[in-house]
Design goal:
The chain has 3 helices and 3 strands; from the N terminus they run E-H-E-H-E-H. Strands 2-1-3 form a 3-stranded antiparallel beta sheet, covered by helices on one side. It is an alpha+beta fold. Pathway: Purine metabolism; IMP biosynthesis via de novo pathway; 5-amino-1-(5-phospho-D-ribosyl)imidazole from N(2)-formyl-N(1)-(5-phospho-D-ribosyl)glycinamide: step 1/2. It is found in: Cytoplasm. Keywords: ATP-binding, Cytoplasm, Ligase, Nucleotide-binding, Purine biosynthesis.
Length: 89
Amino acid sequence: MPRIVVDVMLKPEILDPQGKAIAHQLPGIGISDFSAVRQGKRFELFVDGEVTEAHLQAARRAGEELLSNPVIEDVVNVSVADDDAVEQA
């Protein structure tokens, strides 16, 4: 079943204590390659049939009006899920 992915992230000027906590813990598990971490949210919206431009526009609207808090978050991506990339990850 086709999926649309909506990614929501905190706005850059908003502090991210969860991301800071994760970044602080990474060296403890032997990972020191990253200088910072920002956490976000991913939503998957399922579509019956082929994904159309209207579906993508509706998904963006849902992201902006329902899935995110526009005061502190931005919708940073709305796209059709790439199942091949998910299987390889």
